[in-house]
User: Fold this.
Amino acid sequence: MLTYRLMASKVNVESIVKGPFREIVRISKSKKCEVQTFLNRLEQDAPQLHKKIFRTFRLLSEKDVKDNKELFRHERDGIYAIKADYARIYCFFEGNELLLCASAVKKKKEKNSAEENAGIDRCIKMRAALNRR
Assistant:
């Protein structure tokens, strides 16, 4: 399922969930993956939220839920947020069958906080790095 462009790039790619509709993967430029670190922290600190995120991953892999704004929302510039309570995992599509998760943040109360914008910007930079290859 992973495209040749991803396999040939110098980006670490690891599958999170593979379903009949699409595969969801996490990507990073180094051995330390921001998304995996965030998920590990959630698993320890907020196991119910961790389970909720994985239910959302499974749902996204099984059917098209792009229109469900409570779970999945377009932020800007082709970057989407997987949403669960205060957790945001920023991702983008490679075709329609592959969703790449590139950054994650803990949402603050105010809308469009600096942390959220930084998470989106990191995701945009990761996508740009892939497109240059």
